[in-house]
């Protein structure tokens, strides 16, 4: 019963909003980074296979795609660390709020976590002393950050605005592929359009993907329809959609973090605990 009581009390103090937001954040970033990376690779192959035979025409595009792919690695690493830090902040502030309302009491489990965070008792001997001292320094620095939920609200708010721009940018390739897919449907069903099939084209130059002097730069008619029927085009299109959905999920996670951290900060502020606790 002691173990069950410990687990029950720890669950009572768990920040469920932060846990959900962390799960959404990791899921969204995984979709965005993984699917986005593969979709960019597929786009590179489609461009160099069907839209231009001259490497000089799409050399700059290849460089941009590779830069974005390297940036994706950094985004994945950053959000993994930032999500873990926000989850720790959620545990920290939620525990303080629930102690104020008397909904959370320290148990053996809580004391164990507290001892871990504060570095516990110093070990015997010089080695144990150095280890305890180093742990205390790390936890002291971490505690200074976790003790300022207002800073986390501000940082997450700025990050949400930046990610909103990322979401808008991730919608651009979805729009381009959707327009191409719509054009292919018109070619496949000529009775639904009054335009000539030969005049139905997708011009990569029009979207800024290729320079205007690129040759041929566009594909029309049955040639375009054959591209749309390839598994590579279909897969790349769906990968971009998945990356867009992942970016949207990540934005929802950031907003959830903001709401939860703002609530905890407001309660602590109104209860006279200030911004430090």
From TrEMBL:
The chain crosses the membrane at residues 12-32, 70-88, 152-178, 239-266. PROSITE patterns: MYELIN_PLP_1, MYELIN_PLP_2. Its main location: membrane. It is found in: Cell membrane. It holds the Pfam family Myelin_PLP. InterPro entries: Myelin_PLP, Myelin_PLP_CS. This is the major myelin protein from the central nervous system. It plays an important role in the formation or maintenance of the multilamellar structure of myelin. This is Myelin proteolipid protein isoform 1. It comes from Gekko japonicus.
């Amino acid at each position: 019963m002691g173990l069950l009581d410990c687990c029950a009390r720890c669950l009572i103090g768990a920040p469920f909003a932060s846990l959900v937001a962390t799960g959404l954040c990791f899921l969204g970033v995984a979709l965005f980074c993984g699917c986005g990376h593969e979709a960019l690779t597929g786009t590179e192959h489609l461009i160099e296979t069907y839209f231009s035979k001259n490497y000089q025409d799409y050399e700059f595009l290849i460089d941009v795609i590779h830069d974005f792919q390297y940036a994706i690695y950094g985004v994945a690493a950053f959000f993994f660390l930032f999500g873990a830090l926000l989850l720790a902040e959620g545990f920290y502030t939620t525990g303080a709020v629930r102690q104020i309302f008397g909904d959370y009491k320290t148990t053996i489990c809580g004391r164990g976590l507290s001892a871990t965070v504060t570095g516990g008792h110093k070990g015997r001997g010089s080695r144990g002393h150095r280890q305890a001292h180093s742990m205390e320094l790390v936890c002291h620095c971490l505690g200074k950050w976790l003790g300022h939920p207002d800073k986390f609200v501000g940082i997450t708010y700025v990050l949400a605005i930046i990610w909103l721009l990322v979401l808008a940018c991730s919608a651009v390739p979805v729009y381009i592929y959707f327009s191409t897919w719509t054009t292919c449907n018109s070619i496949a069903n000529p009775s639904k359009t009054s335009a000539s099939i030969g005049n139905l084209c997708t011009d990569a130059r029009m979207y800024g993907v290729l320079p205007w002097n690129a040759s041929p730069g566009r594909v029309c008619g049955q040639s375009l329809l054959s591209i749309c029927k390839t598994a590579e085009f279909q897969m790349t299109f769906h990968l971009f959609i998945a990356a867009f959905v992942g970016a949207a999920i990540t934005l929802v996670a950031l907003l959830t973090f903001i709401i939860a951290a703002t609530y905890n900060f407001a309660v602590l502020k109104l209860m006279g605990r200030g911004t430090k606790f």
